[in-house]
Structure formats: structure tokens, C-alpha cells
Amino acid sequence: MPTPATPVDPAFGSAFVVGEALIDIVVDGDSTVEHPGGSPLNVAYGLSRLGVSTTLRAEIGQDPRGRALEEHLAAGGVVLDPASRSADRTSTAVATIQPDRHAEYEFDLSWAPGPIVPPAGVALVHTGSIASVLRPGSDDVLRLFIASQESVLLSFDPNVRPGVTPARDEVLAAVDALAAVAHVVKMSDEDAAWLHPDLSLGAVVDRYLAAGAALVAITRGADGALVATSDDRLSLASLPVEVVDTIGAGDAFMSGLLFALLSRGLAGVVQSGALSRPDLEAVAATALASARVTVSRAGANPPTPSELARLAR
Predict the structure, then answer these.
(1) Where is the Carbohydrate kinase PfkB domain (predicted)?
(2) Is the predicted pLDDT of residue 3 greater than 50, yes or no?
């Protein structure tokens, strides 16, 4: 069982995560194993495991895989929004582990949540990946962000999946619409290269800061991460780690980053665009430590509080 988390100070608020919850069917050579997955589910689980009171709005079926997802979320302390139990069947993603240990995905899913209503009193709303670009649900997500932009910290990770939404121009338009109202925008270097093939990573950062984001982070796998505000820009290296697989690594970075912002009481600071360099360094270090734990073991298995504290010191 996971180490019980010390709850984040309730005064710093709770989190509401919106997006896909699915079963990852991981094919690694002759082995096939099923894990709970989906980028938003992973972020919600990672936040809750670190002590942030977290609710997930997803779509799952009332089938064995859906029950497996519910059990996984309950074990991590995530509250499943009751409206999530609305799908005909639970979505799946076949993740095939390649010789260099990264995963390639094939998806079978749908996303049509309808109106999305966050719980009262949340301090953070996060979305990303397929839920942010796959219609009709992506339109519902955008409406939620527009309605919430003045009241809560908004976080967005495009986590693009060309195998599901291959039309780059349409994906970029959806990403830009959400990024225009989000306070935190995070993506991988692979996301950046696909969305903006003619731009350097630095230029991608500039683009999203200019669009209105207060904090932009680009992960670079084993090369660490680039994090920036309008006042500061840091290039941080990753510490060495033996990689088992990269499933959930970006999501663990995201949940670690958001946990650090909430636990330090920085949600309002980020919204106002006043994050200091020491705070930027601290939250980025926590995010990198969270990802490091996750790649060191199979599946999307984010850190416990004790693991994160040990690495983030």
C-alpha cells in the first residue's frame, strides 16, 4: 500500500482534473500487462498520492476495466466525479515498449462529457492530452477553462497523441485556445516539435509566455527540463536514473509541479505572474524528482511523499 500522504494545507485548496481515464495495455516483448492510465488520470492520482485533495472528471464504463480504474483511484485517494460513470465502455490504449524503452500508443476511446462543473472551492483545474483536443468533449473543456480563468489556477499539458488526433493544424488551434487562458502550460520536447516543427524550444517557450501563460515548462527526457516565467528562464538537468519505462513520466512531472505550487501556497502567485526565481527553482526540482521516481519502475507509478522528499532535497 502507498505511504499515507500528509494532506496539503486545505487553505491552499484542492484540485479538479478533467480528461481521459483508460486502461493501458502494455506490450513489452512477450509480456502483456494492464495498468490504469490516461494522462489526466495519472496527474490526478499523482496529486492525490502527494496529499492534494483531488477530484477527477473522466468517462468510464461500468465494466471490469472501469471497476479496475475506480479501485485504482480509490486506492490513491482520488474522488471520482459521479458524472464520470457515463461511457458505454472503458477506453483503452495499447502501449508497446520499444527497444529504447519508450512507449508507442494505439488508442480506442471516445470523449463526450457534456457540461463540466468543478466542485466548490477548488484552487486548481488541470486538463490535457486527448481530452483537450478530441471533440466534442474538447469544446466542453474549453468552456470550463474560459469560465474558470478568473477564479482558479488553470494548468494544461497538451501531451499530443497524433495517433488519435493526426490533423496538426486542428490540434494546434485547440492547444492555442486552451493555452490562451491557462496559467501553467507544460509539454514535452516531442510535443513541441510536433506542434511547432520550425521553432526551437526557446522560441516555443516565448510563444506560450506571449500568449498569456505565467509559467511554461518543457520536459526533455533524460536532458531535464526548461522552465520559464516572463522574468526567469532555467535549464535544469535530470539526475541519472536506471529507466524501466517512460510511461507516466510527463504526468509525474506535471503532478509534482502542481503539488509544489499548491503545497507552497503559490497558486495565487502564479495567477498574478509574480513567481520568484527561488520558487521557480524549487517547484521545477520537485517536478523533476517526481518524474525520476516514475521512470525507475514499471507503469505510471508516481512517488509517495517520502520518496519525493528524499529526492527533492
Answers:
(1) 18-305
(2) no
Q: Are 301 and 294 in contact (CB under 8 A)?
A: yes
Please give the tally of structural domains in the chain.
1
Question: Is 5 contained in some domain?
Answer: no
Residue 6 lies in a domain: no
* pLDDT tens-digit map of 81-100: 999 998 889 999 888 888 88
Residue 67 lies in a domain: yes
186: its cell numbers: 507544460
Neighbours of 166 (CB within 10 A): 10
Domain-located, residue 2: no
Q: Is the pLDDT of residue 225 over 90?
A: yes
The CATH number assigned to the domain holding 192 equals: 3.40.1190.20
pLDDT, tens only, 129-168: 999 999 999 999 999 999 999 999 999 999 999 988 889 9
Q: How far apart are CA 40 and CA 134, in angstroms?
A: 14
Q: What does the pLDDT read at residue 238?
A: 81
